[in-house]
Every structure is written in C-alpha cells, then in structure tokens.
Amino acid sequence: MPTLAIHNGRVIDPALGRDGIADVVIVDGRIARVGPNEGDMVVEAERIDATGMIVTPGFVDLHTHLREPGFEYKETIATGTAAAARGGYTTVCAMPNTSPALDSRSAVESVLREAESSGRVRVLPIGCITIGRLGKELAPQNELIEAGVVAISDDGDAVADPSLMRHALAYSTAFGLPVAQHCEDPSLVRDGQMHEGWVATRLGLRGRPASAEETLVARDIALAELSGAHLHICHISTAGSVALVAAARARGAHVTAEVTPHHLTLTHEEVAFGDDYRHIRYNTLAKVNPPLREEADLVALAEALRDGVIDAIATDHAPHAVSDKEIEFAFAAPGLTMLETSFGLSMRLVHEGLISLPVLIERMTIGPVRAWRLDERTGIAGLGTLAPGAPADVAILDPNAEWTVEPESFASKGKNTPLGGRTLRGRVLATIYGGAVVFETDRVGAY
Amino acid sequence: MTTTANNPPASGEAGAPLGVRGGVWNHHHVLDLDDFALPEIEMVLNLADRMREVLDRRIARVPALRGYTIVNLFYEPSTRTRASFELAGKVLGADVISVNSTTSSVVKGESLIDTVRTLRAMRADAIVMRHSLSGAPYLAAEHTDASIINAGDGAHAHPTQALLDLYTIRSRIGDLRGKRVVMVGDIAHSRVARSDMWGLTALGAEVVVCGPPTLLPRGLKASDRPAHAESALPPVTIETDIDRAIEGADVVMALRLQSERQQGGLLPSLREYSRLYQVTAERLSRAKPNHLLMHPGPKNEGVEIAASVAAGRHSIIEEQVTNGVAVRMALLYLLSGGSGLSGDPTGEAR
C-alpha cells in the first residue's frame, strides 16, 4: 500500500478550521489522517519533512486557459498542468476559448481525454455559454454537463446581448450551473487597449473604462436575480464592481466572484512606467482584459477578498507566444501567464497585512470549491480540503522564501509575465496530486 | 525594457556627446518630448536657427550629413511631414529614401520589427517613422540600433511637429515663460497636442487645452491623478468654453477635427462643433492684440478654423511649415552625432 507522510508542517485547512502543526498521512492517493504525530507513521512510508513549512490543500483555479485544442503553440494541457503543479495547483478549470470552442460534448470529451493522458493535475472543463462563443445561440447546457463541464462561460468576450444572457441564466437554473461572465461591455471597450485613465492618456492609447465592467456587472446581476440563477463574475477588477456584488449578495442574490493575483497587486502604471515618470514604455506583457486598474481599486479588491465578497483567487492564466506579445501594443494579445507566480504574488497581500495567511489559503482552496460547488458537481468529496478520504491533493509552501521570477524557467509555454526579474516572497515547495508528488523543489525531498 | 530606449547604445558614434552651445546631446532616438530636458530642447531650437539660415541661402545645400542614410518609413499617408523630412535630409546632403506602407498592407506579426531590421541591414542610419498605432516607434527602437524618429504615432506623439511649433513661437515672441498658449479642438486624439503640451510647459508657457468634453482625454487634470504621479502628464489647464480659454491668449492653436469623431458619436454634428469651437476672428478678439494663430495642418477651413483667420495677419501657419524643415535638419544633425564635421554644420565641407 503506497503511503506518504508529510511530517511536522503547519497544516492550514480552512475548510475544517485547522491551523496547527500536524502530520498528513496519505494512503492510496487519499488523505488517511491529519493530526499530531501519534507514532503510527508507517515505517515503510515515504516521508517529507515539512518542519517550518506550510501544508495546505492543493490550490483550485476557477480560471485557466490551457489553449488546447487549437492553440498548442501557446500552451498544451501537458505544459499548462505542469505549470499548475509548479504553482501549487491540483485542480484547474479550463476555459473554453479553444479551437474548436468547448460548445459540444465531443469537444469537452476530447479535453478530458487529453487531460487523462497528459495532464499533471486535475482538469475540469468549462463549457461555452453560446455556440462558438459568438453570442448568438445558446450552447447545449445539459449536454455539456453530461460531458463533464463545471460551469459555462464565453470568457474573453462577454455575452453582450442582454436578452440572450437573460435566457442563458434562466435556462441554467434547471441545472444549478454557474454562468461565468467576462464583464466588459463590448461597445464601451471597442479598440480599448488598457484601463481608461491618465496612463492611457499619457500613452495615447484608447481606454477601457471601469464603467464598461460595472455596467455589465450591474446588468447581469439584475438578470440573474430575475431567475435566481448563479452568476459568477470573472476576474472582477474595479471598486465599483465590488460594491455591486456586495449589495447583490446582501440581497441574497446567487452571485459569486473571483479576482486575479495581478488585479490585486498591479496597477495600470505597469503598462507605461519602469523606474520613473519621465520615460515610457508600451509594455505588452501588462496588457490584459479587464485591464490593470488603479490604486483605489486594488484596495477595494483586497478588502472584498478579505471579507468574502470575493470568493476566490483565480489566475486567468493566459499563456501566449512571444510573437503574440512582441508586436505593436494594439495588436498584442491580452493576458498573462500566472499559474507559477500566483501564490508568490498573492502573498504580497499577506505580507502587507491586508489579509491573513489562512484567509488567502481559503480563497485558493475551499473558497473556489464552494463558489461553484465543485465537490458535488464532480462527485469528489473533500475536494479542496484535507479531510480523511479526500483526494491527497496537497501544496507545501514557504510563505517567506524569496525568489526571483525567471520566465524562461517556467513550465508553461507562456513566458508572458510582467514580473520577470522581480522578487516574490512566498514560494511553492512541493505539490502532491492524488498522493503523487507532481512538483518538488530541492527544499523538500522524500526520505 | 523600453525605459532606456532613448539612451544611446554603449558603442557607436551617435552616443558621442556633442557640444552645441554648451549642452550635451544624448538622444539616440526622438520618440517624444517627454524625456527631453529643457537644455536639450533649447539645443535643437538654437541649432534650428542656424539651419534656417542655410535654408534661406540661394543654394540651400551643405554636406553636413554626407554619407548619412535616412529612410522615411510611413505607414500612414502624409504630405507635409514626409516632404519636410526629405528636404531636411537633402539640404544636409544625406541620402534619403521613402518607403510607403499603406495601412492596408500593415499586417500583424513581426512585420514592423522585420522591416526596421531590414532597413538597418541596408545601413540606414535613421528611420523616420509615421504609424497609425500609438507606441509603434517605441517597438521599432527596441529592435534596431538605427535612430528612430517619431514622425507621428497614433494619438500619442508628434515630437518634431512640437519642436517646430516651439521654434516658430519662440522666433516670434522670444521667451515663452508665462505666455498663454491655447490649443482648441480634438485634444483626446491629437498627437500634436500631446507633444506640444510637453514642449510648451518645458519652456515655461501656460498651456490651456480646450474642446468639448468628449474630445478631452481623461486624467489630464492633475487632480485626477494620484499625488505621486503629478509629473506624469504636463501641467495644463482644461477648459470647455472657448471664449474663456482664448481670453488673454498669446498663441491660439486650432487642431484638426477628424470627421470620424462625429460618426463615433463623440459629436452631434460638425455644424454644432464649428459653432461652438471654430476659431474665428470674433473669438480671437479676446486674445492679446498681437496674438499668434497656428495650425499643425492639414486644415479643415470652416470647421475648426475660419478661412479668413487662417489667411489673416495673425496666422503663422505657413511659417510653421518652413520652420519644420529647419527643425528637422537640426534634429537629424544632432542624431548623426556630427561625425566628420568641423563642428559647424552650416559650413562647407573641408
């Protein structure tokens, strides 16, 4: 019986309210026991000494672009899930803006088959809201659920037509399916390259105003309340959106939200400025939709994350090839690669005293699972926890280790990060998926 | 990565400091005026004075840039800027060629990078670039060691137009400190306005920008920026009422209005625009009696400017054009590093 014991780490398992030194014993790919060393550490067990380290459930990402099928030059399921493993993630929800888009049973099943053979961690597909993500006709929700999707989204584009969105939401109530919307009104962001504000003015770039997000958040909340549907706000990015979600939740609307590590920590200044305001750049690596916002938005997002108005940190990992980014700013593809820097970047909030470490871990583990009821939806009891019987998905972390981001060493094919060369404080030391070590640094070694 | 785009490369003649009236020139590229210190602007303007003398000679030709190759790479149609650069280069004895890539042939991908690398491989020393996308010259500057001169990029910058505007104003009124310069029109989409704001405020002018709210860019008001970013945009006053803006002006500049702005829903009609914002003789009566009237061209007479004032006695629009050649000669000379010259760019070859 293959066993693994993670010895003497500080175990943070927010779902069970656990935070203390304990051993985690894994048998047959499942959590067997978490508790003080009772001397029952099986002799034949492989042991990881986690003294001085943090041991948590493996991270769960509600928003990953794996790019396969169709854009394998940007990322594949193999490389994307390897990146996930390096980032402490054991479950990633794969966005359907592939080619073909995931709007049919066969497309979803092909992703699951590929994940089965080449995936390093669990892949849960997200289906399209509309056929081909074209915003014209609804995709077959029941067929997609049967094929294995955990939510639907046309991410990258919003479902612009209010009537169609209304029906998508209403129809989803038959299945309790989360409808995840990329909230930016297309007519308000047309040709927009970055956040509308003083930095865009300096660069002479057309802006994407905060109100483009807020008007769609407000609209979709109203439409969701009409039918009692579950609306999920992808990568929420403005203080105004946060207020709308908070008010909706206070009314009892079924609205959940995610925020990315970059929207929590980087501002629109990232696009234009390095060390001073005298010299500008057009940093396509910081081009992302929705765009990086302003200081006041970051503050509101961190507070909402702390208070639970935002359920989850999601990466919006969006790998691109060099040729997608090393071009004119307006032609550059939006998005940045994030799985491998997510924990280190998000830890900035903990180091700055904005949220506690257990809350951060909550928002990266059980928070996203509960937001989409992923455990029920997948039939995987204990997903996002270290409860006995749960799959042995574990991250081992050092919240204080400093490391320098070297994109060329990423497992992801996407090297597109504005963080290259920067020092992050907080590091993933090892990741265990289903009882198997899928990533480890030399800081941990089984012995 | 691009923060050093304007620093000269570690080796190469262009980085050699060149003393012109006491200053030090260290721009390898000219992308905008935001990173020009006051002495650098003054160096260009002072040298342009001497270039203007050359232009006024009976045979306007000196060999200062002999052996220097300039490529005009225009991705957007332009008559005056391209002709101005061509003449500037030719007067100084440079080899000048022009490459026009119509907008329709602009394809995504690495074509821009490929193009500037190819031109450099052909030994182009300077590439004068006009592009419809903001930031395109910055991308080019990252991928070649030829000097990139921004001849207008999208809605971002047009530094040589700004320099010729500064030169023209200075040649008429001298010291710009405290002088009220008013720009009227489509500020949000104007690369000329952006570069002029940097240059004019650097020379100490009081700059007022005026237009309908839909054509004013966000964040230009200092109070719309965080305190730490106060210097990130030039200090200007914003005004939506043209009469208040023009009151007491020393210089009034009308900007071209693109008709697309109406189709985009930014304006109700050209008629309403011209009623509200056209620079007319009556409105100019509020300016100082000896005010100057400018326009970067090409003009829409009857829209942003009344034909009578464009041709009137305060207008220095044609002078702007002539000065444009002189200013571009000065810039090209400075960028060339003055190699092989006696130090007097206006003299005959030795």
Explain what you see.
The complex is a heterodimer of chains A (447) and B (350). Helices cover 31% and strands 22% of the residues of chain A. Chain A has 16 helices and 18 strands. Chain A is an alpha/beta fold and 447 residues long. Chain A has two domains: 3-54 and 392-440, Urease, subunit C, domain 1 (Roll), CATH 2.30.40.10; 58-378, Metal-dependent hydrolases (TIM Barrel). In chain A, the strands form four sheets. In chain A, strands 1, 2, 3, 4, 5, 16, 17 and 18 form an eight-stranded mixed β-sheet that branches. In chain A, strands 9-10-13-14-15 form a five-stranded parallel β-sheet. Chain A has a three-stranded parallel β-sheet with strand order 6-7-8, sandwiched between helices. Chain A has helices at 77-86, 105-118, 141-147, 162-172, 186-189, 198-203, 210-227, 239-250, 261-265, 269-272, 295-307, 322-325, 342-351, 357-364, 366-372, 374-378, and strands at 3-13, 18-27, 30-35, 46-49, 54-57, 59-64, 89-94, 122-125, 152-153, 179-181, 194-195, 207-208, 231-233, 255-259, 312-313, 394-404, 423-433, 436-440. Chain B is an alpha/beta fold and 350 residues long. Chain B is 34% helix and 14% strand. Chain B has helices at residues 38-55, 80-91, 111-121, 136-142, 159-173, 191-202, 242-246, 260-263, 270-277, 281-284, 307-310, 317-335; strands spanning 19-20, 23-24, 69-74, 95-100, 126-131, 147-153, 180-184, 206-210, 236-239, 251-254, 292-294. Chain B has a five-stranded parallel β-sheet. A four-stranded parallel β-sheet of chain B has the order 4-3-5-6, with helices on both faces. Chain B has a two-stranded antiparallel ribbon with strand order 1-2. Chain B is globular, with a radius of gyration of 20 Å. The A-B interface holds A 196-207, 269, 273-283, 294-295, 323, 326-331 and B 1-6, 32, 34-35, 108-110, 112-113, 131, 133-136, 138-139, 153-157, 188, 191, 194, 217-220, 224-226, 229, 231-233.
